[in-house]
From TrEMBL, chain B:
Entry's localization field: Cell membrane
Organism per entry: Billgrantia endophytica
Name of the protein this chain belongs to: Peptide ABC transporter
Molecular function per GO: dipeptide transmembrane transporter activity
Topology term for the membrane: Multi-pass membrane protein
Automatic annotation (TrEMBL), chain C:
GO MF, any single term: ATP binding
UniProt xrefs under PANTHER family: D,D-DIPEPTIDE TRANSPORT ATP-BINDING PROTEIN DDPF-RELATED, TRANSPORT ATP-BINDING PROTEIN
The protein, known as: Peptide ABC transporter ATP-binding protein
rRNA-binding as UniProt keyword: no
Pfam family, any one: ABC_tran
One GO term of the biological process aspect: transmembrane transport
Key words, A-Z: ATP-binding, Nucleotide-binding, Transport
Stored InterPro entries: AAA+_ATPase, ABC_transp_ATP-bind, ABC_transporter-like_ATP-bd, ABC_transporter-like_CS, Oligopep_ABC_C, P-loop_NTPase
Every ABC transporter domain range: 10-256, 278-525
Similarity comment: Belongs to the ABC transporter superfamily.
Automatic annotation (TrEMBL), chain D:
Keyword Manganese recorded: no
Superkingdom assignment: Bacteria
Principal subcellular localization: membrane
CDD domains: TM_PBP2
Family the entry assigns: Belongs to the binding-protein-dependent transport system permease family.
Organism in which the protein naturally occurs: Billgrantia endophytica
Domain ABC transmembrane type-1: from-to ranges: 71-260
Transmembrane segments: 12-34, 70-94, 106-129, 135-153, 192-218, 238-260
UniProt-recorded name of the protein: Peptide ABC transporter permease
UniProt topology in membrane: Multi-pass membrane protein
Cross-referenced Gene3D superfamilies: MetI-like
Compartments where found: Cell membrane
C-alpha cells in the first residue's frame, strides 16, 4: 500500500486450474480469466447479454445468421490490433476437438445448438451461421465457463498448438502464476474501454490498479484474519465468514445476491418421496424466510424460485412460492400415511456454499412437523458422486450460476433414465425448456419462464430457498470492489485511495 | 555405511510395492469421480467420458496400475488431474515447505528437550524436575492445531506481530520467509518437545542408575562431564529412535498445522488431492511419503551406532 | 600392619545411613591402615555396598540421610559433605564395582575411558598417558596392544572387562581402593585370576584395599583383617586368622557353617537300570540361515554319554559355554538330539510310543539356575506349585490343594507363602518354590541347572541341604549342573567334567576332587578357596594340594 | 533436595480429569441441559450466561450439551479404536511372535507396510473408502495403530518364548496353547497397558485432527474435534466456541497422560515393594 493504485491483494479460496479459458477450468479460473480475455459478447449485471468486443450485432430474419461488427482499435496484450481474422482463428481453435473445449458440445449440435460456419467478410465483421434458429447462441457465447469464447492472439499457443499463456484483450495482462500460492495480474496500459458504464462483464472497464495479487487462501477463517490484519485487501466471502468481520474497524462489507441457487434436492424416484404429498408437506413445513436468513447470516433474499432474484427474468411471478403452513404439512403427511420413516439429507461442509447450514435448519423445521429428517454430511466429492448417480433421498445443493433462464431450468430438468443427475423429470417441462431456448422474443420468453416456475412449485421436485450471497469484504482504502450477480471479483473497477 | 543403507533400501522395496498397491486400490475404492469433480455440477456424459479417456481413467484397473508404476519407475509421477502440473516437481516444492518447518522445529525441539530432559533426570524428584515434567506433560496434552489456533489468535491477530496468511519461501526472500515460519515452528516445537523431554528424562534416569555412571563419578569426573559424556550418548539412543518416528510422522502428518497456517506444504497437497480425487497427486504423495518414512528410519538406524556402538552387532 | 597404628590411612566413625526411617547402616566405625587389605563380609542386603559407597559420596539418588565422619590421610571429612568427598574421588579413593557388564560405558571406547581418569588427575602428555595405559593393560593380563584402546566394551568378555575396570582404577594410583564384590559375576576360574591380578597390583603399589564379599572363604585368602556385617551393624572384626579360628558372633559362625564341606553321602541303592542314560548324544544348534550360503550349525554337545541312577546325584561341571545347559535341555526335551540315544529305565525314548514318552516327560523335572526369572511374575506361589499337578488327571482340585500344601511345607516354607507373588520372596525362598514345583509331582528324575549360583553362601547351603533331604525322601535321580566345585563337594555322588561339548573326566566325587586327571579339572579346583575346619573348633585356611599340580592361570 | 511424592498425585489428577469427562459423557447419554442437536436460530452465538453455561454455537445449539454429547462420541471412538487395535494387534503379534517363520515374515511385512503409511494418512485414505461414519473412523484409526501393538506383542512374545518360566512350563509337559494363554499373554499385559494408554491419547488427537480436516465424525453429531473445527468461522467474536472443545481435548489428553504415567510407574518392576 505504498502508493495509491499500486497493488491490491485479493484472496481466493482455491487455485485456478489452468490459464486456458473454458478448457480446464472452474469458477475461480473463470474469475481470473475474465480479467485477461474478452469475447464478442458477455453478460450484463442482470444476466442479459450485451456486446463486448463486438460494437453491435445483427440477427437475420430467419434467425440463422448473426453478424458481429467488431470494435476498432482494440489491442491484444502483445500490442497487435484485434481483427476479425483473430476472432475466426480463436473460434476455430475452440471448436477443434483437440483443444478439448468444455463448450464444444454446446455449439456443434450435440445438445441442440449448431454453428455451421464462422467467417470474416472483412476486417471488422464476423458472421456466424446456425443450422437452426436458437435463442441460446448469444447466451452460450457469453458464458464465463465457456471462457466467453475468448478472442485470443495466436501467440497464445506454440507451433504444435499447445497452450502457452493467454494473450487476450482484457483489462489485465496475465503475470506470474505461483501455483497454489498466488497469481499476479498486471494492468494493461493500452486497454481501450467501451463508452458505456461498467455493466457485469461488459461495458466500460477502467483498470487502475497496477498489480492485482490474487492470494490463494483455502481457509476462510484465515481470510478473515488476513483482512483484519491488513495482509489481505479484499476478498469475496461466504455469508457465514463475513459475520465476524462486521464492525471490524478498517474493513467494509458489501452484499449482493448472485446467480447461485441454494436448496434441497429431492429424489422423486425414492419410494417414499415419489409421493407428491410428502414433497409438498416438506415445502409447507419449511419457513423459507427463516431458512434463508438463518443459513446466510441474515444476508440472503428468501425466494423459492429457480431464477435468482437479481436476474432480469425475476418478476412478480417468481416471487410466488410456498406458504409456510406446518398444520397443512402435518395433515398432508397423515394423508400420505407417512410413519416416521427416516429421510436422509446429504450435505457437505465446503466453506464456499451454505449446504450444511441449509440442511441443518431444514432438518429442524422438518422434524417440527414430524418428518424424521437426518442430516448426513459428506465430503464434496462423495456427495457429487451421489448427485450424479441420483443416489440420495434429499441433498442440500447449490447450483452454479447460469445467466439465461433456459440454461437455469436445463440445469435441473431432464430425463432421469438418461441423466440420473437431473432432479425434475417432467416431459412437459422439458418441452417448455426446448421452446424457451428457441424463442427470441423477450416477452414470450418471460411467459414461458413464468409457466415453468409455476409448474416447478406445483411439482416440488426440489426446494429452493434463496440465491447465493456474495459478500465483498475489503479494507477501507479499497474502492469499487462490489459484489454482483456473477460471484467473481472485477478488479478493473477497483481503485485505492490512501 | 553407505552400502548398508543401499542394502536396506533394497530390502524395503517389497514394502514400497505393497504400499503402492494399497494406495492404488484405496483410491479406486473411494467414491467420487475425478472427472466429475473437474467438470462440476454441469458435466455431461460426453464431457465426462472425454475427460476420463484423457486421464486414462477408463482403462481397467490393473492396466492403470501398470502404467502408473511403469511411469514412476522411470521417475515420471504424471500430471495432476486438477491443475495439469507435473507431480514430482510439485511434490518436491511442497515438500520443501514442510521440510523447512519440520527440520527447523525438530532441531530446536531437540536442542531444548535434550538438556532439559537430562537436567530433570539429574535432579530427579526435585522441585525443578516436578515442574519440568508437569510442563512437558501439559504441552504433550495440547493438540497441535489447537496450539496453532491459539498462537494465531494471540500473535497474529491480537498483537499483530506476525503475518497470519500467505507464505514466502526462504529462497525468495529470506527475512520475510522467516516471519512466516515462526508460528508453525513454534507450534511444532512446543508440541513435540513435551514428548522429547519426557523421553530423554526417562532414558537418562535409566542410564544414571547404571554402574558406569558411578564408576565415572568414582574416578572423580565432574557432574557436567558425567551427564554430557557418559550419560548422554547412552540415553540418547531411545530418543533418537523417537526422533526418527517423529520426523517421519511430521514430514507427512502436519496437514493440520499447514491448514491452520495456510502453508503450501506436502500435507495440504495430499489432503487437497484427496478432496479433489486427484489420483496421480494422491498416489504420488503417498508413495513419496512412504519412501521418505522408510528412508528416515534407515538413516536413523544408520546413525544409531554413533551413539550406541552395541547396536552395530545386532 | 594393625589397628593400633598411630594414624590409619582411613578411619570412619559413626557412619549411619537411613532409608525411609529404616537404618540400613547403623553406626559403623572402622579403620584401614596404609597398605592394608581388609575385607567386609556379610549376607546380601547387610549394607556393605551402601557403607562403602558413602565414603565416595556415591549413594544412589533417594538415599541420602546420613551422619558420620571420616578421617582420611590426616584430614577430616563429614560424610554428608558431598563436595568435599568429591575431591577425593579417583586419585585418593578408587572404587571397583561388582558388575563388569555395566561398569564400563558402552558408548565410549575403552581408550577414552582409560584416558579420562589420568587426564583429570595428572598433567601428563597424551603420549605418556598412553604409555602408562598400555603398560597397565599388560599388567592386568591383556595384550599391550594399542588396537585394544579402539574397542568398545561390548567387544570384551566379562573377565576382560573387569580387568579393564581394575586397570582404569589402578591407573590413578588411589591410596585406597574399594572393591565391591569385584568377581562375583565371573566363573570360578576367571574369578580367581582377576582376584589375583588385582591384589598383586595393589600390593605392588602399596595401596590399601577394602574388599567386599559375601564369601568368607574367598576373602580370607586375601585380607589380613575381616569385618563382619549383619543387618547394617558391624558385628565382629579382627585379624583373619584369629577370627577364623575363634568366631565369636553367632552370625559369623553361621557364615562359616555355610562353607562347603565334603560330607559323606549314602550311596544309592543299586538298581537294574539307570533312571536315565544318555548314549553318545550329539546336539547341534542351527546357525543363522543365509540365502545362497550353506548353513553352519554349531555342535554344542559332542558325543556325551552319561547315566544317573535312582537316588543318585551326578554333578556335571565345566566352564561357561561348555554345553552343560544344552545337555540338560536335551534331557527334558527342550532341544532335540541330533544323534545318539536317550534311555529311560533302560528303554530307548526313540522307540517309545507317545503316551509312554509323555509319562517320561511328566516324570522328569527341572530346577533352573535363576530363581528370579524362572517363576512367572504374575502368578501366586500356590498357582505356581499347582501348575505341574494340573497335568495329573488322577488328582482332583482338593487333592491338588492338599499336595500343594504338603510340598510347600516340605521345602521349608509355610502355607502363609502360598498367596504371595514371586517378587515378594527372597532369592532363597524363590528357589524353594522352584524346587517345590519340581518335586510336586514326585518325579523320578530331576535336572538342576546351577540351582544355587544366584544365591549367597548361607542360602546356598540351605538349598543344597534341602535337596539332599528331599532326595533321601523321594529317591529321585538328580543331574546337577554347576561350575562350583563347592556344591559338588556337598551333594554329588559322581562328577562329570565337561569341556567344549565333551566329557573330559568322570568318576566318583572323591576320586575326581582329590586326584583330578584333566588339566581343566585341576584349574577349577585350584580356584576354589578352601577353609578347613579345625579339630578344636573354628577354621583355618587350607592350601589345596593336588597330585601332579599343573595349569597356572593364563 | 526435597522429596515430593509425585506418583500418587499424577494418578489422582489424571483420574479426576478423566473421571469428570467420563461422568459427563455418561450423564450426557441420558440427560443434557438442552438437546445437543436442537437449533435455535434466534439464540445464535450467545456468550456464556446463566442459561447456557458455555454459550451457544452458530445454530444456537447449547455448547455444554454438545460437549457432553461429544464426550461420549469422542471417548467411545477412542476407546473402541484402542480395543480394536489391541485385539487385532495381540492376535497378529502372538501368531507372528510365537510361530515365527513364514507367518512372522508375512505379518511383519504387512505391519511394516502399514507403518510406512503414517497413521493419520492411513486413516485419511481409509476414511474416504469406508465413509466417515463413526465405525469407519474406529476401523481406520485401529488399523493405523495395530502395527505398534503387533510390534510390542511380538517382541514380548519372542522374548518370553525363551524365558525361564516358559521353559519350566514346557518341561512340566504343558501344551503350547496352554503356555501361551497362561504364561505369555498375561505377561504381555504390562507393556500393552502402557501402550494402550498412550494410544488412547493418540486416538483422541487423531479423531479431533480428522474432524478438524473435515474427515472425522460427520456433523451434526458433535465431537470435540468437529466443534473445534466449526468454531474457526467465528473465531474472532465467539472465542468460547473454540476454547471449550479445545479444553476438553486437552483435559482428556492430560488425564490420559497422567494416568498413563502413574500406570507406567506402577507396572515398573523397580517400583514394586
Ligand atoms: N537405592 C536404594 N533404595 C532403597 N533401598 C536401598 C537402595 N540401595 C540399597 N537399599 C537397601 O539398603 C540395604 C543395604 O543395601 P546394600 O546394597 O548396601 O547391601 P549389600 O550388603 O551390598 O548387599 P549385596 O551383597 O546383595 O550387594 C538393603 O536392605 C537394600 O535393600
Ligand atoms: N539357542 C542357541 N543357539 C545357538 N547356540 C547356542 C544356543 N544355546 C547355547 N548355544 C551355544 O552352545 C554352547 C553351549 O551352551 P550351554 O548353554 O549349554 O553352556 P553352559 O555350559 O550351560 O554354560 P554356562 O555355564 O554359561 O551356563 C555355547 O557355545 C553356546 O554359545
Ligand atoms: Mg552390594
Ligand atoms: Mg548354563
Amino acid at each position: 500500500q505504498a502508493a495509491s493504485n499500486e497493488t491490491v491483494t485479493v484472496a481466493m479460496n482455491a487455485d485456478m486450474r489452468s490459464t486456458q479459458p473454458g478448457v480446464n477450468r472452474d469458477g475461480n479460473t473463470d474469475g481470473v480469466m475474465m480479467h485477461v480475455v474478452e469475447g464478442l459478447v458477455g453478460y450484463r449485471e442482470d444476466g442479459s447479454v450485451g456486446p463486448m468486443l463486438a460494437e453491435r450485432y445483427d440477427i437475420s430474419e430467419d434467425g440463422l445468421t448473426y453478424t458481429f461488427h467488431l470494435r476498432e482499435g482494440v489491442r491484444f496484450h502483445n500490442g497487435e490490433t484485434m481483427t476479425a481474422e483473430y476472432v475466426v482463428w480463436s473460434w476455430d481453435r475452440w471448436m477443434d476437438p483437440e483443444t478439448e473445449w468444455r463448450c464444444l458440445a454446446d455449439f456443434d449440435g450435440t445438445v441442440g445448438l449448431e454453428v455451421t460456419g464462422v467467417s470474416a467478410p472483412d476486417e471488422h465483421t464476423v458472421t456466424m451461421t446456425l443450422a437452426e434458429p436458437s435463442a441460446l447462441l448469444l447466451a452460450t457465447m457469453a458464458r464465463p465457463d465457456c471462457g466467453v469464447v475468448a478472442v485470443v492472439h495466436p501467440d497464445s499457443v506454440d507451433e504444435e498448438g499447445n497452450w502457452i499463456e493467454p494473450i487476450g484483450t482484457g483489462p489485465y495482462k496475465f503475470g506470474r502464476w505461483d501455483h497454489n500460492r498466488s497469481i499476479e495480474l498486471n494492468r494493461f496500459h493500452d486497454y481501450v474501454s467501451r463508452d458505456e458504464p461498467m455493466d457485469g462483464y461488459v461495458g466500460g472497464k477502467q483498470p487502475t490498479i497496477e498489480t492485482v495479487r490474487i492470494l490463494i487462501v483455502p481457509d476462510p477463517a484465515t481470510v478473515v484474519a488476513g483482512l483484519q490484519s491488513g495482509d489481505i485487501d479484499a476478498a469475496m466471502l461466504g455469508s457465514a465468514d463475513s459475520r465476524s468481520l462486521r464492525g471490524v474497524p478498517g474493513v467494509e462489507l458489501a452484499v449482493a445476491s448472485n446467480g447461485q441457487r441454494n436448496g434441497l434436492l429431492i429424489q422423486t424416484q425414492d419410494p417414499l418421496l415419489s409421493d407428491p404429498r410428502i414433497r409438498r408437506a416438506m415445502a409447507l413445513a419449511i419457513d423459507t424466510e427463516q431458512a434463508a436468513l438463518g443459513s446466510s447470516e441474515g444476508l440472503g433474499t428468501p425466494s423459492n424460485s429457480n431464477v435468482p432474484v437479481a436476474s432480469a427474468w425475476y418478476g412478480e411471478m417468481q416471487a410466488q412460492g410456498y406458504e409456510y403452513d406446518p398444520e397443512a404439512a402435518r395433515a398432508l403427511l397423515a394423508e400420505a400415511g407417512y410413519n416416521g420413516e427416516p429421510i436422509e439429507i446429504i450435505a457437505n461442509r465446503r466453506p464456499v456454499v451454505p449446504s450444511y447450514n441449509v440442511a441443518i435448519i431444514a432438518q429442524a423445521m422438518l422434524q417440527e412437523v414430524g418428518i424424521n429428517a437426518q442430516v448426513n454430511t459428506m465430503e464434496w466429492a462423495t456427495q457429487l458422486d451421489r448427485y450424479s448417480r441420483g443416489r440420495y433421498q434429499m441433498m442440500s445443493f447449490t447450483y452454479s450460476p447460469r445467466f439465461d433462464p433456459a440454461l437455469m431450468f436445463e440445469q435441473i430438468t431432464g430425463d432421469k433414465r438418461q441423466e440420473p443427475r437431473k432432479v425434475w423429470d417432467n416431459s412437459q417441462a422439458i418441452a417448455l425448456i426446448g421452446e424457451l431456448s428457441r424463442t427470441e422474443d423477450d416477452a414470450s420468453r418471460q411467459a414461458l419462464v413464468d409457466e415453468l416456475h409455476t409448474m416447478m412449485i406445483e411439482d416440488t421436485p426440489l426446494l429452493f430457498f434463496f440465491p447465493g450471497v456474495s459478500v465483498a469484504a475489503y479494507r477501507e482504502h479499497v474502492e469499487g470492489f462490489t459484489p454482483w450477480f456473477g460471484e467473481n471479483p472485477r478488479m478493473w473497477a477497483v481503485r485505492t485511495i490512501l | 555405511m553407505f552400502l548398508h543403507i543401499v542394502r536396506r533400501l533394497g530390502a524395503s522395496l517389497p514394502t514400497l510395492f505393497l504400499v503402492s498397491v494399497l494406495i492404488f486400490l484405496l483410491l479406486r475404492l473411494v467414491p467420487g469421480d475425478p472427472a466429475q469433480l473437474l467438470l462440476g455440477d454441469l458435466a455431461t456424459e460426453q464431457s465426462l467420458a472425454r475427460v476420463r479417456q484423457q486421464m486414462g481413467l477408463d482403462l481397467p484397473w490393473p492396466q492403470q496400475y501398470l502404467i502408473w508404476t511403469g511411469q514412476v519407475l522411470q521417475g515420471d509421477f504424471g500430471r495432476s488431474i486438477q491443475t495439469g502440473q507435473e507431480i514430482l516437481p510439485l511434490i518436491l516444492r511442497r515438500f520443501g515447505v514442510t521440510l523447512s518447518i519440520v527440520a527447523v522445529a525438530i532441531v530446536i525441539a531437540a536442542l531444548i528437550a535434550i538438556p532439559v530432559g537430562m537436567i530433570a533426570a539429574w535432579k530427579q524428584n526435585s522441585r525443578l524436575d516436578v515442574g519440568l515434567v508437569a510442563i512437558s506433560t501439559l504441552l504433550l496434552s495440547i493438540p497441535s492445531f489447537w496450539m496453532g489456533l491459539l498462537l494465531l489468535l494471540f500473535f497474529g491477530l491480537h498483537l499483530g506481530w506476525l503475518p497470519v496468511v500467505g507464505y514466502v519461501s526462504l529462497a525468495e526472500n529470506f527475512q520475510r520467509g522467516l516471519l512466516y515460519l515462526i508460528m508453525p515452528v513454534i507450534t511444532l516445537v512446543l508440541v513435540e518437545s513435551g514428548t522429547l523431554v519426557r523421553m530423554m528424562r526417562s532414558s537418562t534416569l535409566e542410564v544414571l542408575r547404571l554402574d558406569y555412571i558411578s564408576h565415572a563419578r568414582a574416578k572423580g569426573v565432574g557432574e557436567r562431564t558425567v551427564l554430557a559424556r557418559h550419560a548422554f550418548p547412552n540415553a540418547f539412543g531411545p530418543t533418537l529412535t523417537l526422533l526418527g518416528i517423529m520426523l517421519g510422522n511430521l514430514l507427512s502428518g502436519i496437514a493440520v498445522v499447514e491448514t491452520v497456517f495456510t502453508l503450501p506444504g506436502l500435507g495440504r497437497l495430499l489432503v487437497e488431492g484427496i478432496y479433489a480425487r486427484d489420483y496421480p497427486v494422491v498416489q504420488g504423495c503417498m508413495l513419496f511419503i512412504a519412501a521418505l518414512y522408510i528412508l528416515v528410519n534407515i538413516v536413523i538406524d544408520a546413525i544409531h551406532p554413533l551413539f550406541d556402538p552395541r547396536v552395530k552387532d545386532t | 600392619m594393625s589397628l593400633d597404628d598411630a594414624s590409619p590411612l582411613l578411619a570412619v566413625s559413626g557412619l549411619t545411613i537411613e532409608i525411609n526411617d529404616k537404618l540400613v547402616v547403623d553406626d559403623l566405625s572402622f579403620a584401614v591402615a596404609e597398605g592394608e587389605t581388609i575385607a567386609i563380609v556379610g549376607e546380601s542386603g547387610s549394607g556393605k555396598t551402601l557403607a562403602t559407597r558413602s565414603l565416595l559420596g556415591l549413594l544412589p539418588s533417594g538415599v541420602n540421610c546420613r551422619v558420620g565422619s571420616m578421617r582420611f590421610k590426616g584430614n577430616d571429612y563429614r560424610l554428608d559433605d558431598l563436595e568435599a568427598l568429591k575431591t577425593l574421588r579417583g586419585h585418593s579413593l578408587g572404587m571397583i564395582f561388582q558388575e563388569p557388564m555395566t561398569s564400563l560405558n558402552p558408548a565410549l571406547r575403552i581408550g577414552q575411558q582409560l584416558h579420562e581418569g589420568l587426564k583429570l588427575h595428572t598433567r601428563l602428555e597424551r603420549a605418556e598417558r598412553e604409555r602408562r595405559i598400555l603398560a597397565m593393560l599388560e599388567r592386568v593380563g591383556l595384550a599391550r596392544d594399542r588396537a585394544l584402546l579402539e574397542c568398545y566394551p561390548h567387544e570384551f568378555s566379562g573377565g576382560m572387562r573387569q580387568r579393564i575396570m581394575i586397570a582404569s582404577v589402578m591407573l590413578m594410583a588411589p591410596a585406597l581402593i574399594v572393591a565391591d564384590e569385584p568377581t562375583t559375576a565371573l566363573d570360578a576360574v576367571v574369578q580367581r585370576e582377576v582376584m589375583e591380578t588385582m591384589l598383586a597390583l595393589t600390593r605392588e603399589a602399596g595401596n590399601a584395599t577394602i574388599l567386599i564379599s559375601h564369601d568368607l572363604a574367598m576373602v580370607a585368602h586375601y585380607a589380613s583383617r575381616v569385618l563382619v556385617m549383619c543387618q547394617g551393624k558391624l558385628v565382629e572384626q579382627g585379624e583373619t586368622v584369629a577370627l577364623l579360628a575363634a568366631p565369636r558372633h553367632p552370625y559369623t559362625r553361621k557364615l562359616l557353617d555355610a562353607l562347603p564341606r565334603r560330607v559323606a553321602l549314602a550311596p544309592p541303592a543299586p538298581a537294574e537300570h539307570p533312571v536315565l542314560a544318555l548314549q553318545r548324544a550329539v546336539i547341534e544348534y542351527a546357525g543363522r540361515r543365509r540365502w545362497f550360503r550353506p548353513t553352519v550349525s554349531k555342535r554344542a554337545v559332542d558325543c556325551v554319554s552319561l547315566e544317573v541312577a535312582r537316588g543318585e546325584t551326578v554333578a556335571l561341571v565345566g566352564a561357561s559355554g561348555s554345553g552343560k545347559t544344552t545337555v540338560a535341555k536335551a534331557i527334558v526335551g527342550l532341544v532335540p538330539l541330533h544323534s545318539g540315544e536317550m534311555c529311560f529305565d533302560g528303554r530307548s525314548l526313540a522307540g517309545m510310543d507317545r503316551s509312554r514318552r509323555r509319562t517320561w516327560r511328566l516324570d522328569c523335572q527341572m530346577i533352573q539356575q535363576d530363581p528370579f526369572s524362572s517363576l512367572d511374575p504374575r502368578m501366586r506361589v500356590r498357582q505356581i506349585v499347582d501348575e505341574p499337578l494340573r497335568l495329573d488327571a488322577a488328582l482332583d482340585r482338593g487333592q491338588r490343594l492338599a499336595r500343594v500344601n504338603e510340598v510347600i511345607d516340605e521345602v521349608g516354607l509355610g502355607v502363609e507363602f502360598l498367596e504371595r507373588f514371586p517378587h515378594q520372596l527372597s532369592g532363597g525362598q524363590r528357589q524353594r518354590v522352584a524346587i517345590a514345583r519340581a518335586i510336586a509331582r514326585k518325579p523320578r528324575f530331576i535336572v538342576a541347572d546351577e540351582p544355587t549360583s544366584a544365591l549367597d553362601m548361607t542360602v546356598q547351603k540351605q538349598i543344597l541341604t534341602l535337596l539332599v533331604e528331599l532326595q533321601r525322601r523321594y529317591g529321585f535321580a538328580c543331574l546337577l549342573i554347576t561350575h562350583d566345585l563347592g556344591v559338588v563337594e556337598q551333594i554329588a555322588h559322581r562328577v562329570l567334567v565337561m569341556e567344549q561339548g565333551r566329557i573330559v573326566e568322570s568318576g566318583e566325587r572323591d576320586q575326581v576332587l582329590d586326584a583330578p586327571r584333566h588339566a581343566y579339572t585341576r584349574r577349577l579346583l585350584m580356584s576354589l578357596p578352601q577353609l578347613a575346619a579345625r579339630a578344636e573348633g573354628g577354621f583355618v585356611l587350607r592350601e589345596r594340594t593336588l597330585a601332579g599340580e599343573g595349569g597356572a592361570p593364563t | 533436595m526435597k522429596r515430593l511424592s509425585l506418583p500418587p498425585l499424577n494418578a489422582l489428577l489424571g483420574g479426576l480429569l478423566l473421571g469428570i469427562l467420563v461422568a459427563a459423557a455418561l450423564v450426557g447419554l441420558v440427560w443434557t441441559p438442552f438437546d445437543p442437536l436442537r437449533i435455535n436460530i434466534l439464540g445464535r452465538l450467545q456468550a456464556p450466561d446463566t442459561l447456557h453455561w458455555l454459550g451457544t454455537d452458530e445454530f444456537g445449539r447449547d455448547v455444554l450439551s454438545r460437549l457432553m454429547d461429544a464426550a461420549f462420541t469422542t471417548l467411545s471412538i477412542s476407546l473402541l479404536t484402542v480395543l480394536a487395535a489391541v485385539f487385532a494387534g495381540v492376535w497378529l503379534g502372538v501368531l507372528s511372535g510365537y510361530l515365527g517363520g513364514l507367518v512372522d515374515r508375512l505379518v511383519m511385512m504387512i505391519t511394516n507396510t502399514l507403518l510406512a503409511f503414517p497413521g493419520i494418512l492411513l486413516a485419511l485414505g481409509l476414511l474416504s473408502v469406508l465413509g466417515n461414519s463413526r465405525y469407519g473412523i474406529v476401523l481406520a484409526l485401529a488399523l493405523a495403530y495395530t502395527p505398534s501393538v503387533v510390534r510390542i506383542v511380538r517382541g514380548t512374545v519372542r522374548s518370553l518364548r525363551e524365558s525361564d518360566y516358559v521353559e519350566a512350563a514346557r518341561v512340566m509337559g504343558h501344551s503350547e496353547p496352554f503356555i501361551l494363554a497362561r504364561h505369555i499373554l498375561p505377561n504381555c499385559l504390562a507393556p500393552l497397558i502402557v501402550l494402550a494408554t498412550s494410544m488412547l491419547g493418540w486416538a483422541i488427537i487423531s479423531e479431533s485432527a480428522l474432524s478438524f480436516l473435515g474427515l472425522g465424525v460427520p456433523p451434526p453429531r458433535p465431537t470435540w474435534g468437529n466443534m473445534l473445527a466449526a468454531s474457526r468461522e467465528n473465531l474472532a467474536d465467539a472465542a468460547w466456541l473454540a476454547v471449550f472443545p479445545g479444553l476438553c481435548i486437552s483435559f482428556a489428553l492430560l488425564g490420559v497422560n497422567l494416568l498413563g504415567d502413574a500406570l507406567r510407574d506402577f507396572l515398573d518392576p523397580r517400583m514394586k515393594p
